[in-house]
Design brief:
With 289 residues, the protein is an alpha/beta fold. The protein contains eleven helices and eleven strands. The strands form three sheets. It has a six-stranded mixed beta sheet with strand order 6-5-4-7-8-11, with helices on both faces. It has a three-stranded antiparallel beta sheet with strand order 1-3-2. Strands 9-10 form a two-stranded antiparallel sheet. α2 crosses α4.
Length: 289
């Protein structure tokens, strides 16, 4: 797998998404199975208990034998990608990538995988300026639309409020929802949205982004930290605070436990790591949908 910084250095999201995803396509499960579908596939002999409506009576009249028409059943699903584009996603890791950069690469690769599974894939960019929503579609022009929306997404402000998010949960439509977020929230607004989406749509795969320098507090000496969404600053000695900073891992464990208790498929991602772990989890969840 190429590193996220090398993929980002391509400055070409469609190419980066393809490079990141193609290694997984060979192991992806087939998107069709035999059953009672619409597109004819093959015949098989009648067995007691089979649905008589599927008998080919013309063939029976010619051969005096009973055969059922087997068809291919489309097992494609709708995949709804969510990108958190609040200002905290502008946090930059030591490798030079922001969380938003990593999120673009990740969702681009997931969109590529989903389309090649035959799925209808859509995208919603969540920002205080309003939702940028592309409904799930399976046509050939959908990927360029998604890539353009990802490439032009800007992170700013706080996570959108309930009124702005209401259209996402207004209609019941079964889908696999994949949310990429750093879970920076003031009052549980991200988790409430995902809980509603799970109730109206089905499965939720939550990919929690944390930068490597956040996970380890890799700074040294006196530093000034600024909250990207509120503008508040905090001055501290990183070396002195590092032991206390380990409480972050207790928060992460509690966050994972709470997400799974709500029924989300939760995975923590380090923005310094390759995309393969997240792609593997998507294919695993997609296979069981």
């Amino acid at each position: 797998m190429l590193s996220p910084e090398l993929l980002h250095a391509l400055r070409n999201l469609p190419l980066a998404a393809k490079q990141a995803a193609e290694g997984f396509l060979a192991g992806a499960h087939a998107s069709r199975r035999h059953g009672a579908g619409l597109e004819f596939s093959q015949y098989r002999p009648y067995q007691p208990g089979d649905d008589l409506r599927r008998l080919d009576w013309r063939l029976a009249a010619r051969s005096d034998r009973y055969y059922l028409r087997e068809s291919e059943v489309d097992t494609s699903v709708s995949v709804h990608l969510l990108l958190d584009a609040s200002a905290s996603m502008n946090h930059r890791d030591a490798n030079g990538l922001t969380k938003l950069d990593y999120g673009r690469l990740l969702l681009g690769a997931l969109a590529y995988l989903a389309q090649h599974q035959g799925d209808a894939v859509g995208l919603t960019v969540l920002s205080p300026a309003g939702l940028r929503h592309l409904p799930p579609r399976a046509d050939a022009r959908q990927l360029p639309r998604l890539y353009h929306a990802l490439e032009t997404a800007k992170a700013a402000g706080a996570f959108p409020g309930a009124a702005a998010l209401a259209p996402l949960t207004a209609r019941r439509q079964r889908a696999l929802t994949v949310c990429v977020s750093d879970l920076y929230e003031a009052d549980g607004e991200i988790n409430r949205l995902l809980a509603r989406l799970r109730a109206v749509s089905g499965e939720v795969l939550l990919l929690h982004l944390m930068a490597g320098n956040e996970l380890t507090l890799s700074y040294h000496g006196a530093v000034t930290l600024r909250d990207l969404e509120t503008g508040q600053t905090l001055q501290l000695d990183a070396d002195q605070q590092r032991p206390a900073y380990q409480q972050l891992h207790a928060w992460l464990a509690a966050t994972a436990q709470a997400a799974r208790r709500r029924g989300f498929d939760y995975h923590l991602l380090n923005t310094s790591d390759p995309l393969d772990g997240a792609l593997r989890e998507f294919l695993r969840r997609r296979a069981g949908f």
